[in-house]
Amino acid sequence: DMVRLRVGLWKSNDTKNGTVFLFPGRTGYIERYGRIATWLSECGLASFAIDWRGHGLSDRLTEDRNTCHVGQFSDYQHDVVAMINAAKELDLPKPWYLIGNSMGACIGLRAMLEGMDVAACAFIAPMWAINLSPVQQNGAWALSWAAQAVGKGHVYAPGYDGQNYVLKTAFEDNTMTNDPEMYRYFSNQAQSQSDLLIGGPSMGWLFQSLKECQRLSKMSSPDIPCFTFCGVQDEDIDIHAVEDRMALWPNGKFELIQNSKHDVMYEIAEIRQSAMTKICGLFTAP
Fold it and tell me: Rounded CA gap, 208 and 227, in Å?
């Protein structure tokens, strides 16, 4: 649909075990996944990541380039198709696998339900429902629907602006990680690569996300081996929705991690190493 997208590939001479598609979360961009790609490379896996539309150096969708916006959530599936086509053109080694983080897990689940060919998947803090109280949920539906209806879908959702989360939030107050070194890693990236950043979500993004999560909640999980991780301290996603889905996922495993916030893959060394070991074990199993 004429949106220019950016992809990134990490491929060594020893990627004998296949390729992992990395689906970033909201506000994510390719460079944030460099360390994960390094870990996967040690398991003999290539890594293929994307800047979603409206993110990173892919085309932005609003006049205010800092707004996280999307016309319809299904538009992200155009990005998935383009990414798969690029993987075929690059002849990326198979089998293919998927790691989806937060919003990327929502996009990834839909992609697999629509036939994305992966041998196994792992989801980190999947955004299969947003963490809102019943009152907040009702308000979010009403306000975001009304904003779209009157042509204001591009404006920021209440409480958000164009500032990037990492740049405006002190480590002590962050909801991402308990690891100060990792938070400095995010912060240093953000300060040195400002063109990659976006700020808060639009009313349109909020409405489309609520609608997509509701639709997915009514669909069965694919029969594909899956490992899903959530942190007990996660304030961003609805963990109960994740538990409910994983309880019924064929060949699915779920781990709720103590002392972990939203970004499990960038938590303290013990947590992230444990998660990566389990993911690599799943992806390289005979």
Answer: 26
Report yes or no: 25 and 56 within 8 Å, Cβ to Cβ.
no
Bridge partners (DSSP) listed for residue 258: none
**CB 68 within 8 Å of CB 202:** yes
Residue spans of beta strands (DSSP E) within the chain:
6-10, 19-23, 46-51, 96-101, 120-124, 226-231, 252-257
Cα-trace Rg, the chain: 18
Return the axis-axis angle of helices 103-113 and 203-217, rounded to nearest 10°.
50
What does residue 25 show for φ and ψ, rounded to 5 degrees? -85, 180
**Distance (Å, rounded) from C-alpha 171 to C-alpha 243?**
28
For residue 12, give the nearest of 37, 35, 32 by alpha carbon.
Answer: 37
Q: What crossing angle do the helices spanning 203-217 and 239-247 adopt, rounded to 10°?
A: 30
Predicted confidence band of residue 231 (pLDDT cuts 50, 70, 90): very high
What letter would DSSP give residue 44? T
DSSP category for residue 194: G
User: pLDDT (tens digit, 9 = 90+) per residue, 184-217?
Assistant: 999 999 999 999 999 999 999 999 999 999 999 9
State the angle between helix axes of 134-149 and 203-217 in degrees (0 to 180), rounded to the nearest 10.
120
- Give 143-171 pLDDT, tens digit per residue: 999 999 999 999 999 999 999 999 999 99
Q: Going along 160-242, which residue ranges are E strands? A: 226-231
Alpha-carbon distances of 260 from 176, 218, 275, rounded to whole Å = 9, 29, 12
Please report, as a single letter, which amino acid is at residue 58.
Answer: S
